Amino acid sequence: MGNRGSTFRELRRLIPYYRASRLPLLAAGICALGAMLAGLVIPLVTQKIIDGPVRTGDTTALVWLVLAVAGLGVVEAVLLFARRQLSAPPNNRAEAGMRAALYAHLQRLPLGFHDSWQSGQLLSRGVDDVATIRRFMTFTLIYLVINTTTIFVGLGIMYTLAPVLGLVVTICMLPVLVSTYFYETRYRVVARRAQDQAGDLATTVEESVLGIRVLKAFGRGEHLRGHYLKQAADLRETGLRKISVIAVLWTTIIVLPGLAVAAQLAAGAHGIAAGTMTLGTLVASITLTTFLTWPVESLGWFLAELNSAAAACERFGEVSDTGPAVTDPADPKPLPRPVRGELRFEGVRMRYPAADTDVLSTVDLTLHPGETVALVGATGCGKTTLTALIPRFYDVSAGRITLDGTDIRDLSLNDLRSQIAVAFEEAVLFSATVRENVAMGTHRPTTEDEVREALRVANAEDFVDTLPQGLDTPIGEQGLSLSGGQRQRLALARAVIGRPAVLVLDDPLSALDVHTEAEVEQALRRVLHGVTALVVAHRPSTVQLADRIAVLHEGRIVATGTHRELLASSKVYRTLLSTMDDDASEVEDLEVTAR
């Protein structure tokens, strides 16, 4: 009973999505019930024909009785058609609503959630599981209720016609109900396992497609193919277990109604011979049993689908029930206009939920309006974490970050992120045109002049104009048709098109040569004069373009100053400078410039 309660508890998740459609779905259920009841009446008319015109030879009423059978058949067909017409639109709307809600919720969830979930599992929940729920609501749920009702009504009619025959059918059906309950509990476990394995398989396919260059370069295609085949084999094995469970159930369901017919024939023949039963009653009873065969047989399949839908609801809820760690404040403060761009870190500490130690510990740093600060530090010291706190991809564990004196947690996310642009080390582009990818950096509509200006800032206009359709050239998935430097320049153009007050660059220029990088930096300073910029730097050529440098070491800002000042005062900075990923000649030139 605990499992059954869990099943219906999971299905209750669907109420908000189907509440608006309850009337058409109720009407669809009534139509389905009417169709089944019309079918149940046909055996009673058959009894009248056999015990009337056939037995007596008086065919006066035969035409009307035959027309009644035909009419009931037409009514049944019309009601089934109406059931489809009534149930399909609301179910498809609910399916679209669930997908839209899940997609919107995924956008609100923190980066930590996406870091811990496989994309294939999320894809499986948003596509396959929602489709499973829609199929259940469109057909299975209605007929699970209707067929169960039909069985009880049919048995009631049978008891009215001949209690003995009704008892025979009841005795044969009880094992069906018991076996159905037993096997559907086993089926749910197997169904959930199959859905999870399908998500893992989707993840492998997605990763192998996105990483096809790596697989080919290292000749590891066969290795991943073996992994894929192992997952596919596991899914196949689980699928066979599902079939095994269903096969046993269906065997029971199919055999017992046949036995019921045989037992009815034996009892009915004895009753007719004894004069206690008419031939019409026996035929009507057997016809009713035949009519009830599908409702009885379908119970096993419907209960299997019920458990598949419950598992799909559970998997859907694992995502939709996860609350966003970063949310808008209850009463957001307005950001003073115009935004100056002063960014201040005050005693900032950061620890990830699953970590035992702080990534950042007591970070104090001020970026003055219009100032470019380079953030340098060894690998793993927390540079990327620090930049992720500014647009509130994560919230600080302690301390605060302010923008123009206002704690960023007191601002609405839209207000905050409209003033902060981020360009990541890994340039992520979407399957859209160049124009659409660049325009994604701002909420407002953009003109072609604005897009081109952003491209000029990022030193990307020339190569874009050489593309087959210029700004309207479609970029393939992940922008893999472009070079690394081209992708990063488009990502930089996307970051600057909204003219943000604060620009956060997580080393987005790593794929550019030194000359192009310097041109982009100079263009940024010229066109975006007065913008506050925090740049994670791994190259001396980037460091020297900053107004000031902040050294992050073991989660703390241990030194700030100009390049010349830090060379003279910070041993940590000198060590970092010597290990930066640049030619030795660049480091020497930088040191000469400082002297």
Structure summarized in a few sentences:
The chain is of the alpha/beta class and 595 residues long. The protein has a domain at 15-320: ABC transporter transmembrane region fold, CATH 1.20.1560.10.
- Averaged pLDDT: 81
Instruction: Find the structural class using helix and strand composition.
Output: alpha/beta
Helix content: 55-70%
What is the H level of CATH, i.e. the homologous superfamily of the domain at 15-320? ABC transporter type 1, transmembrane domain
Can you give keywords for this protein?
single chain; 595 residues; alpha/beta; ABC transporter transmembrane region fold; 4-stranded antiparallel sheet; 9% strand; cell inner membrane
Report on the architecture of this protein:
It is a multi-pass membrane protein. This protein has a domain at 15-320: ABC transporter type 1, transmembrane domain (ABC transporter transmembrane region fold). Helix 1 packs across helix 10 (279-320), helix 6 packs antiparallel against helix 7 and helix 9 packs antiparallel against helix 10. It is an alpha/beta fold and 595 residues long. The chain is built from 21 helices and 10 strands. It has a 6-stranded mixed beta sheet, with helices on both faces. Mean pLDDT is 81; it is low at 582-589. It is elongated and about 120 Å long. It has helices at 2-11, 15-18, 22-56, 62-108, 111-116, 119-161, 163-210, 212-218, 221-274, 279-320, 383-389, 413-417, 434-439, 448-457, 461-465, 484-496, 514-527, 540-543, 563-569, 571-579, 584-594; strands at 343-350, 360-367, 372-377, 398-403, 406-407, 420-423, 502-506, 532-536, 548-553, 556-561.
